[in-house]
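Propose amino acids for all 127 sites.
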C-alpha cells in the first residue's frame, strides 16, 4: 500500500507544481470608455487577463503609441490615449516586455470635439 500512496502523492504534487508554473495567456476584452476626443489625453482602462503586474507594457491606438501606460493588475491596464488625426475606429494593440503582442480589433473610437453643447445656453436669461 505504501508504494502506491507515494506514487499518487508524487503525481498530485507534480500536477500542482506544473500548474503553478504555467503562464496564463494574455487576452484583451474591452476598452472603457470605448471612445474619446481626437486630442487624446484621456485615461482609459483596458480590461483583459494575463498581464504581468509590475511589468512593462506598450500600448498603441491604431498607429499611435500611448504616452503613458501601466499595469494595474493581472486583469487591468491603465492608459492615456494619444492624439489622433481623424475621427475613426481604431484597433488597440498591447505588447508586453517579452514581445508578446495582442490586438483588440476596432476597440476605440476617436471623436471630433463638439462645436456646441446643449448646455451652452444654460443659465442665460433672454431679455
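Proposal:
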Amino acid at each position: 500500500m505504501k508504494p502506491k500512496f507515494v506514487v499518487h502523492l508524487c503525481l498530485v504534487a507534480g500536477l500542482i507544481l506544473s500548474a503553478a508554473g504555467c503562464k496564463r495567456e494574455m487576452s484583451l476584452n474591452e476598452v472603457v470608455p470605448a471612445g474619446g476626443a481626437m486630442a487624446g489625453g484621456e485615461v482609459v482602462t483596458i480590461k483583459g487577463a494575463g498581464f504581468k503586474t509590475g511589468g512593462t507594457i506598450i500600448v498603441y491606438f491604431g498607429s499611435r503609441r500611448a504616452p503613458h501606460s501601466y499595469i494595474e493588475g493581472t486583469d487591468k491596464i491603465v492608459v492615456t490615449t494619444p492624439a489622433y488625426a481623424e475621427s475613426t475606429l481604431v484597433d488597440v494593440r498591447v505588447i508586453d516586455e517579452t514581445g508578446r503582442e495582442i490586438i483588440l480589433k476596432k476597440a476605440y473610437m476617436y471623436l471630433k470635439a463638439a462645436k456646441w453643447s446643449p448646455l451652452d445656453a444654460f443659465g442665460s436669461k433672454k431679455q
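The mean pLDDT is 83. The longest strand covers residues 101-111.
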